[in-house]
Amino acid sequence: MLKNSKGYKGFTLIELMVAIAIASAVLAAIYSVFIMQQRTQVSEQVAVDMQQTLRAAMYLIERDIRMAGYDPTRTWGLDGKDNDGDFLFDEADEKQTDKELDTIDNDGDGSIDGADADGEALGIVSAGPHTIEMTMDLDGDRMYTGSNERIRYGFAFAYDADGNGIADLNKGGAAPLGRAVGAGSPQSMAEDIQAVAFSYAYDYDAGAPIESLDRLLDTSPGGNVIWAFDSDGDRLLDRILDTNDDGLIDGRDIPGGQDLTGMGWETAYVPLNRIRAVRVWLLARARVPLKNYTDTATYIIGDKHIDVRDSNGDGVVDASDKPDNFKRRLLSATIKCRNLGLE
To answer: Could you read off the pLDDT of 19-32 as tens digits, one per residue?
Structure first.
């Protein structure tokens, strides 16, 4: 038999197995860290994308709301004149201002008639809990029929059939937020929005004489700004959100709000031309679910309390619901209407 005369030694089978086991453990650890980092990166990228979407959408909404009521001629809307001579600054004045007698076809229907008085309503003309519509006179022609002079925001009916401000589950649970110009259909301006809501602060003073109109936002008995909305589309703010009057709109408030006059905070519902500020909520949801992620939060979006654990939307969290694996981001903003008399 030949012998190894140079003293070389090889690896035994046990040594090889031990080395392979150690290497496998190291590789498994590296792979585990890689997967974890990859999932974190994907999750963070999803969050960044949603945040960018929300900020872009909020920028457009803020821009339009700030322009609501823009009147380069300064003869429209609440001009501070006691036109009927009753020593009150109230709705009756707006029916007798020069806007009704100026022979201007303000609503662009081809006729000069009584409808033009309403046609001259500048500012927030629809103040729903989940939609908002505003007018402005950008070109100074005393009409709002031009491009971008009448704008509304909200979900299209195809994505929110019941108008509750939450994208329908049969449409995927998230939908494009629409921006409509004039009488046109809503065009997508932000994708993957699950819910949208609006509320409105106002300066009412209940028809008080103009000398007492302080141009400050009305407050509750607790000294908090009153955030209200028009629940039935009659152009009057009739429900409030901060039902416990603690200055916050959160889970301790009653979903759907409460009646404004029923709270005793005003003697009558508030006309939309008293609106001075708007609060907006946007809830974005990731387009696809994430592995190893579960959302169990309740989101307060205006008058809605959205518990994402109720995945089938039946109002009850029970065994029929599935875990929610979608990541979300909520963005809210308070916007002062600089063309609507707020100082």
So the answer is: 888 888 888 888 77
